[in-house]
Design a protein that fits this description.
The chain has about 140 residues and is of the alpha+beta class. It has one domain: Alpha-Beta Plaits. It contains 4 helices and 5 strands; from the N terminus they run E-E-H-E-E-H-E-H-H. The chain has a 5-stranded antiparallel sheet, with helices on both faces. A hairpin with a 2-residue loop joins strand 3 and strand 4. The longest helix has 28 residues. The chain is globular, with a radius of gyration of 14 Å.
């Protein structure tokens, strides 16, 4: 199981176990960094991103989608900005997040506007953060 930490304007870490064996979801990986300082230096252009620390490496993700078409659209979008994006597939079990992601995927499929794409990516990661916090609070309060 992976542990993800989320950054939204501040460095408040959120740990989640939202990953399991249910719905394949694509996380677009910006890169892997040897330390937190290098990660932060290379993500200054992103208002939202999530990262997973694994074996003292920081894996940074900048978008989430379930749509193969949107996956290709987002990879192309980031490539135009000079980033090489790879995808990793995770199984997400949170039905409420999957519902929200489906709605944003629908919006993303209908736009090519740069500002809208950035906003959608930020909103999806923000919703993911909310879901992660909610899930962690539920586990703490159980």
């Amino acid at each position: 199981m992976g542990t993800f930490l989320i950054k939204q304007y501040s460095n408040i870490p959120i740990t989640t176990s939202t990953f399991s064996e249910k719905t394949p979801t694509y996380f677009l990986k910006l890169g892997v960094y040897d330390n937190k300082e290098a990660m932060e230096k290379n993500t200054v252009d992103f208002n939202y991103y999530i990262y997973k620390e694994d074996n003292n490496k920081f894996h940074v993700y900048v978008a989430i989608t379930q749509s193969k078409d949107n996956l290709e659209k987002l990879k192309g979008f980031f490539k135009e900005k000079g980033y090489i994006i790879n995808e990793e597939e995770f199984d997400v079990t949170s039905e409420s997040f999957i519902t929200i992601l489906s709605q944003y995927d629908e919006l993303l499929s209908k736009t090519d506007d740069e500002k809208t794409i950035k906003a959608i990516c930020g909103q999806v990661l923000s919703k993911y953060e909310e879901e992660s916090r909610s899930e962690n609070n539920d586990k703490t309060n159980s």
